[in-house]
TrEMBL record:
InterPro entries: Cyt_c3_hydrogenase_gsu (IPR012165), Dihydroorotate_DH_ele_sf (IPR037117), Dihydroorotate_DH_Fe-S-bd (IPR019480), FAD-bd_FR_type (IPR017927), FNR_nucleotide-bd (IPR039261), PyrK_electron_transfer (IPR050353), Riboflavin_synthase-like_b-brl (IPR017938). CDD domains: DHOD_e_trans. It comes from Hydrogenibacillus schlegelii (Bacillus schlegelii). FAD binds at residues 51-54, 68-70, 75-76. [2Fe-2S] cluster binds at residues 220, 225, 228, 244. This is Dihydroorotate dehydrogenase electron transfer subunit. Binds 1 FAD per subunit.
Amino acid sequence: MRTGAARIVGRRAIGRSIVELALAVPPAFPEPRPGQFVHVRVPGDALVLRRPLSVADWDERERVLRLIFRVVGEGTARLAALPVGAAVDAFLPPSTGFPLSAVRAGETALLVGGGLGVAPLIFLARALHARGVRVKARIGFACAEDVFGLRRLRAVADVELYTDDGSAGAKGRVTDGLGPEAAFHAAFVCGPVPMLRAFQRMFRGDGRPIYAALEARMACGAGACRACVVPVAEGSALRHRRVCRDGPVFALASLHVAGVPEDGSPDGGRGWADGGGFV
Ligand SMILES: Cc1cc2nc3c(=O)[nH]c(=O)nc-3n(C[C@H](O)[C@H](O)[C@H](O)COP(=O)(O)OP(=O)(O)OC[C@H]3O[C@@H](n4cnc5c(N)ncnc54)[C@H](O)[C@@H]3O)c2cc1C
Ligand code: FES
């Protein structure tokens, strides 16, 4: 069973419209892997579609998973308003997650996250650290009020913090000063599409494994409706792959990032399917 009635066992505001929910999941709920997301049913008749949210952390012993999300619309507002004790119907699609085997014990993993893209990196950093990997994390936010995950990340990683306005950490972007000379064996990135584009340009032709977790507007979340497809290069062919089932994690070099919609909608109003060439 990949779905089930989870129960909210913790809820707190952790920033400007950012909420953390702790969900205790039933015994039959599969163990999530870093990079995977849960598809959560939102209470209320009008909202038929579930909302995808990354697993930000997982406590194996307590069987509690954590979600960190920004309230951006009705669905996230309703989820954020649920009280501790409320039941939530959560489904774990059999998505890819980050390939932990890309980096071995004693090697270095570079994690780069922007905004809410930092959420899945917390779980990833803990999992890599537990395998003996040295974890370096660069995380960026708009301003100090948006910063989250710092304490948990610092427990397992060397962390560099950036804010756009310099109100916490260094002023600048997570990609500032990064380049092909950066020392890492594998990199994992999650953040807004412009950040992925910058990263892809910077490491074009770099032979090291670099993976990106993508967002897309989703409907079924189970691989059936193709609402979430993005263009992915496979050899010389460009294929449409489902973010919910074939992703959300892809090799960065394979992504036709120029064609990935910035707002997660199927064409982002920009007709990515017509876009030519790889960035
Ligand atoms: C695999 C995956 C993991 C995600 N993990 C997180 C997470 O850990 N934390 C988090 O805060 N958000 C995450 N998101 C985005 C989150 O799913 C959306 O913010 C949420 O579904 C919005 O629902 P809503 O009803 O509140 O907003 P709506 O009323 O549906 O939309 C409000 C605004 O949010 C935008 N939006 C809606 N859905 C998406 C989406 N899927 N991707 C990008 N923009 C969207 C809309 O374009 C609109 O501007 C993730 C998305 C995906 C696909
Ligand atoms: S959301 Fe239906 S196939 Fe991905």
